[in-house]
Structure formats: C-alpha cells, structure tokens
Amino acid sequence: MTATDASRAFAALLDDVERGETIIITRAGRRVASVGPVDLSNGSEVVALLAYGPVDDEFAQDVAAAREAVELAEPAWPAD
To answer: Please, which domain of life does this record's source organism belong to (predicted)?
Structure first.
C-alpha cells in the first residue's frame, strides 16, 4: 500500500491489521514501513526467565563486555 493510500484509508488499514494482516507501506516504490498486529505478550516469559535462577558468571561477563563495546552515536532516548 502506498503512503498516500495508507493516509487516505487509515481506518480501513487498521481494520485489516486488527484482522491479523500485516501491511507494507511504500513511498516512491520503496518499502518504508510495516504495520501489523501488536504482540500481545505481557512479558511473563521474561519474568519467568529472570525468576529461574542466577545468571551464569560467564554469560554475565559476556553481557558486560558487549555493553562496554557498544558506542552509541546518539542518545538511546531522545531528549523531551
């Protein structure tokens, strides 16, 4: 669906998404966005994983090393 068509028929686009469709939005023939159903997960899988037990020391070291290696070109969250 083109961006223009999506703009003109946004309510219909949302109806399609609500029925489970994923809509690809294009601009000048290029794919620029995907609009689809929201993931209804409430995070219970993450909570269960965290409650499972202690994190392996080697894994914790790998996570810490990955965090140190990452340099963000800009802040992760834009200033309000």
So the answer is: Bacteria
Cα–chain-centroid distance for residue 73?
20
Residue 31 φ then ψ, to 5°: -70, 125
End-to-end alpha-carbon separation of the chain, Å? 32
Q: What is the mean pLDDT of each run of 10 residues along the chain (80 residues)?
A: 96 96 96 92 74 79 82 62
Query: For the whole prediction, is pTM greater than 0.90?
Result: no
* 42: phi then psi, degrees, rounded to nearest 5: -105, 10
Q: Side-chain half-sphere of 51: how many Cα atoms within 13 Å?
A: 6
Closest CA to 39 of 10, 13, 17, 11: 17
